[in-house]
Amino acid sequence: MLEVYLDPATINSRKVLAGLELVGMPYHVNHVNYFAGAHKQSPYTDLNPNGVLPAAKDGEFTLWESDAILQYAADMSGTDKHYPKDLKKRVDINRWLLWEAAHWQPSCYVFFIENAVKPVIKAPTDRALLDKETPNWRRLANVLEARLAKSKWVAGDTVTIADIAVAAPMHVHKKQALPLDDFPNIRRWIAEVEKLPCWQKTQGAVEAALQPH
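The chain above was modelled as a monomer; its predicted structure follows.
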């Protein structure tokens, strides 16, 4: 069983929770309170010196970076259904994991903090920051929109860990107020993600974590 250290409120924690459910990897959650800053303190920083969520342990082996946790869990699950071993299929998934981490997540994160997190902690929203980020977000959304015009899921006709990874940064897109009106393929796809049992199973924990404090 994989021990995971996370808070369902955060994007990458949601990614890991839903991803582990998708691939069928048994896990046990150790809650690390994001809003209390527990991820910036020991003992959590002994696991992940970066001070960001999540982290995982498999016996004495410690792992951080949410996409690496997904890849590890998918390979450990005993099936390659959601992370095929075929080289071209796998590198396509990896390409989207890297894109999400380097580009999509940082852009969606601005909307997440300003529109979803700040109301929880009763802090003012920075509208200027949102206005500044919106053109970049739309540019990235066009990349995803074009891909989803050609396939049902991010990496083809079957759901993979790439879908969980790319969906996670917009996991509370209504609270984030992401400007999705001009992106019908993304809207269609995220609705399909939200129907997945792995996503639905983790929804309650996310909603509870993002209630006003």
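The CA atoms of residues 26 and 138 lie 37 Å apart.
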